[in-house]
Amino acid sequence: MDLIQGSGGGDAHANGVDRLNQHQTAKPKRQHHHTNAPSANLIDKILPKELLLRVFSYLDVVSLCRCSRVSRYWNQVALDGSNWQRVDLFSFQRDIEGRVVENLSKRCGGFMKSLSLRNCLFVTDAALKTLAQNCRNIEKLNLTGCNKITDATCQNLGHYSHGLSQLNLESCESITDGSLIALSEGCPKIETIAISWCQKITDEGVTLFVQKCPRLISFVAKGCNKLTDLSVKEIGAYCHRLKSLNLQDCSSITDESVMKISQGCPLLTSVCFSGCILLTDASLISLGKGCNTIRTFEVAHCSQFTDNGFETLMKNSHNFERMDLEECIQITDSTINHLAMQCPRLSQLSLSYCELVTDSGIHHLASSACGADTLTVLELDNCPLISDLSLGHLAACPRLRRLDLYDCQQISRTAIHQIQNSLPNLKVHAYFAPNTPPTSGAGRRRRYCRCCVVV
C-alpha cells in the first residue's frame, strides 16, 4: 500500500489520501546515484530495523507517507502496522472515503489503538464494519461529525471491539438508543462517551448504557434535549467513578437529577449544566455537600441561581479553576467576594451579563490570592456597572492575559490603554460606538464606518 505520490509539501498533503486508497504496495522507482555520492542506504546499515521503527513511530501521517517513497526498505518500515497505532485523519477530512478506512484497517490490523475520523463526512457504516473486524484492539475512536453512520456502526463495534474505552459520536445525527444498547452489551470497558447533539437519543438508551458500563468516567451529552431526570438519576446511581459530566442544554433536568449526581459521583472534577434553566440553588447546595473536587464549573444561563447557592457551594469546594457564570443574572458582588476568598486557584472566570456586579466585586477579586497568582481570563461583557475603577484594580493581576469588556458602557479608551501599559501581555476585547456624524455642514457629507472599534 503506497501511501503517497509526490514529495512536495502540498502534494504530500493532497495526494497522500489518493495513495491511501491503494491497498497494494507500489515499488518505488529505482534511484541512480553518482559514484562519488554517499550511500543512500547508510542509515539503514547503521540503525537496526527495531530502532528505525522506533524513530518512525514519532512521525505523523504525512511524514510516514513521504518516508515510504524513499526506498523499498523505508517503504516496508514506514508501512509497518506498528507505526500506525495512533492515526488522526482530521487534516484529510474532505478527502477521506470509506475505502481509505478499509485499506488502513487492513494494513494496521491489531496494531491500531486510536483513530480519529473527526468530520470525515464520507465515511460509512460499511467502512467502519471493516475497521471493527480488522482492528479488534482499538481503544479510542473519534467519529465526530460522521453523519452518514447509523446504529449499524455501533452494533459492529459492540460485536468486535470489546476493548473500546473512548468513543466520540458527537453530531452523528442518525444515532439512536440502539447504538447505546449495542455498546453497553459489547463494550463494557468504555470509560468515555460523547453523544452531543445526537438528538434521537432518549432516556431509555442512556439508562441501559450506564447500568452496564460501570467504568464510565466521562459522559458528554450536550444538546440531547430528550434526556430527563429519569436517565440522569441513573448516572448518579451507577457511575460512581464519573469525573466529567456535561449536560449543556439538557433543559428538562431538575434539581432532583443534580442531587442524585451529588450523592453518587463524589469524584467529579468537571461539571457543565449550562442552559439547564430549571435548576435552582438546591442544586448548588447539594453539589457543595457531595462534590468537593470540582475544578471546572459551567452554569451559564442558569438564571435561578443566587448568591445564597454559590455561598454554600464555595464554603465546601475550594478547588475551582474555571467558572462560567454567564447570565446568572441574580448574582451580585457577594458571590464574587466568596470566590475571591474561597477559590485561590481560579484562573478563568466569566461574569458576562451579570448586570449586578460592580467595581467593588472586581476589587475583591483582583486583590485576592487568585488575582495575584492565577487569574488569566476574565469576561465582563455587558456588565453595565463596571467602570474604569475596575480596570485600575485589575492592573494588579500580573498573570491576566485576556479581558473581555464588550458593552461595558462606563469603560473608557483611556483606562484600557492604561491597563495595557501596565500589563503588556494582556489582550483586551472591547468596542466603542462610532462618532456621531455632524447634522449639518457645507459640502458633501463625510462617510463614517459603522463597524465597532476593537481595542
Report what the structure shows.
- With 455 residues, the chain is α/β, with parallel strands linked by helices.
- It is 37% helix and 9% strand.
- The protein contains 19 helices and 14 strands.
- The chain has helices at residues 9-20, 42-46, 49-56, 61-67, 72-78, 98-108, 125-134, 151-160, 177-186, 203-212, 229-238, 255-264, 281-290, 307-316, 333-342, 359-366, 369-373, 388-394, 413-422, and strands spanning 86-88, 114-116, 140-142, 166-168, 192-194, 218-220, 244-246, 270-272, 296-298, 322-324, 348-350, 377-379, 402-404, 427-429.
- Strands 1-2-3-4-5-6-7-8-9-10-11-12-13-14 form a 14-stranded parallel β-sheet, with no helix packed on it.
- Helix 12 packs parallel to helix 13 and helix 14 (307-316) runs parallel beside helix 15.
- The longest helix has 12 residues, at 9-20.
- It starts with 8 loop residues before the first helix and ends in a 26-residue tail after the last strand.
Gross geometry:
globular
Mean pLDDT: 88
Low-confidence stretches: 1-14, 22-40, 442-455
Number of helices: 19
How many whole angstroms does the radius of gyration measure?
28 Å
Strand order of the largest sheet: 1-2-3-4-5-6-7-8-9-10-11-12-13-14
Distance between the termini: 53 Å
Largest sheet: 14 strands, parallel
Layout of SSEs?
Blueprint: H1 9-20, H2 42-46, H3 49-56, H4 61-67, H5 72-78, E1 86-88, H6 98-108, E2 114-116, H7 125-134, E3 140-142, H8 151-160, E4 166-168, H9 177-186, E5 192-194, H10 203-212, E6 218-220, H11 229-238, E7 244-246, H12 255-264, E8 270-272, H13 281-290, E9 296-298, H14 307-316, E10 322-324, H15 333-342, E11 348-350, H16 359-366, H17 369-373, E12 377-379, H18 388-394, E13 402-404, H19 413-422, E14 427-429
Helix pairs in contact: 6-7, 7-8, 8-9, 9-10, 10-11, 11-12, 12-13, 13-14, 14-15, 15-16, 16-18, 18-19
